[in-house]
Amino acid sequence: MHKIKPAQTISSAAIGRALDQLRTVVKQRGLKSSAVRETVAEVALRRPGHFSVDDLVSDLRSSGVIDAHPATVYRVLPLLVEAGLLQLTLISTGDGARYERAFEREHHDHLVCTSCGKVVEFCFEAIELLQRDICERFGFELTGHIHELLGVCKECRTTDAVT
Ligand SMILES: [Zn+2]
Ligand SMILES: [Zn+2]
């Protein structure tokens, strides 16, 4: 088991590689290239950590590159996930799903504090293996998983004990 290093700021070279990967998927799908889509992709890739669609919209607006409408961002996101640039995350926290960069990042799962919202990223090889095992037993080929553990962190448990 190991803890995952927090996402580092992405380099411009990595952004270039990510956009190339996106263009390949866009072509395969027979879609037209779109400057707005690429801008959304770049701003999303540059955002560290876990973010909501609203976070991304405000980033896009403050960057001044495009006057992003939430509907535009919602339309673009599934393709960015399909292209492997982003992944859906933290879907069981109750206040709306988040996204995070998946491109050139290590696979990881999440531990969420239901009291303060703290998130720990980890990878436990045994769990990865067991999940594949479960799929095999049911005749599934595993293509992905979202694994989240909900709990109360040490700090929150200590605070509760005092009050
Ligand atoms: Zn907590
Ligand atoms: Zn994460």
Could you outline the blueprint of secondary structure elements for this entry?
Elements: E1 2-3, H1 12-28, H2 35-46, H3 53-63, H4 70-82, E2 86-89, E3 98-101, E4 109-113, E5 119-123, H5 125-137, E6 148-151, H6 154-162
Parallel strand pairs: 4-6
Antiparallel strand pairs: 1-5, 2-3, 4-5
The structure holds zinc ion (2 copies).
Residues 113, 115-116, 118, 153, 155-156 line the site of one zinc ion.
Summary, kept brief:
With 163 residues, the protein is of the alpha+beta class.
Question: Would you mind describing this structure in some detail?
Answer:
- The chain has 163 residues and is an alpha+beta fold.
- It folds into two domains: 1-104, Winged helix-like DNA-binding domain superfamily/Winged helix DNA-binding domain (Arc Repressor Mutant, subunit A), CATH 1.10.10.10; 107-163, Dna Ligase, domain 1 (2-Layer Sandwich), CATH 3.30.1490.
- The protein is built from six helices and six strands.
- The chain has helices spanning 12-28, 35-46, 53-63, 70-82, 125-137, 154-162, and strands at residues 2-3, 86-89, 98-101, 109-113, 119-123, 148-151.
- A four-stranded mixed sheet has the order 1-5-4-6. Strands 2-3 form a two-stranded antiparallel ribbon.
- The longest helix has 17 residues, at 12-28.
- The chain is globular, with a radius of gyration of 18 Å.
- One zinc ion (ZN) is lined by residues 113, 115-116, 118, 153, 155-156.
